[in-house]
């Protein structure tokens, strides 16, 4: 069964000096302010589209890796994944780097790296970002 998740943003004013608010409609987890400085300069306590993509990618990748490992008979005890999304003003998103550290009994480093590479290729967010360079560092704890 297909699912749809929704969010909406209200932006007020010009790009460089004003700001907006993104609301997570499906989950009801609330609102987060967004602004240009949080996107192209230092974070100003607000989020950015790239940070939201990083959150989506790190969680999707973790789910895909957990599923793959479990299906192979080596369910993880713990996965800690970070996603770093690089944005260059005037160019756009230039890359994503995923870093995962896992606790997985009965698995060696090579098998973990292979499972992580498969998850990187097959998680839906990675597929949605096709055309963007996605790199990966994977290691066991």
TrEMBL record:
Residues 39-48 have a biased composition (Basic and acidic residues). InterPro entries: KH_dom-like_a/b, OsmC/Ohr_fam, OsmC/Ohrsf, OsmC_Ohr_Peroxiredoxin, Peroxiredoxin_OsmC. One of its GO terms (biological process) is response to oxidative stress. It comes from the Bacteria. One of its GO terms (molecular function) is peroxidase activity. Pfam families: OsmC. Residues 22-48 are annotated as: Disordered. PANTHER family: OSMOTICALLY INDUCIBLE FAMILY PROTEIN. NCBIfam families: osmo_induc_OsmC. This is Osmotically inducible protein OsmC. It comes from Actinacidiphila glaucinigra. The lineage of its organism: Bacteria, Bacillati, Actinomycetota, Actinomycetes, Kitasatosporales.
């Amino acid at each position: 069964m297909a699912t749809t998740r929704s969010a909406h943003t209200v932006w007020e004013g010009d790009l460089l000096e004003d700001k907006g608010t993104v609301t997570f409609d499906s989950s009801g987890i609330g609102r987060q302010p967004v602004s240009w400085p949080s996107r192209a300069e230092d974070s100003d306590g607000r989020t950015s589209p790239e940070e939201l993509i990083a959150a989506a990618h790190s969680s999707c990748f973790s789910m895909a890796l957990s599923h793959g490992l479990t299906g192979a008979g080596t369910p993880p005890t713990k996965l800690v994944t970070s996603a770093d999304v690089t944005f260059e003003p005037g160019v756009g998103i230039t890359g994503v780097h995923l870093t995962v550290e896992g606790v997985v009994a009965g698995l060696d480093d090579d098998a973990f790296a292979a499972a992580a590479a498969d998850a990187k290729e097959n998680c839906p967010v990675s597929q949605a970002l096709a055309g963007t360079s996605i790199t990966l560092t994977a290691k066991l704890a």
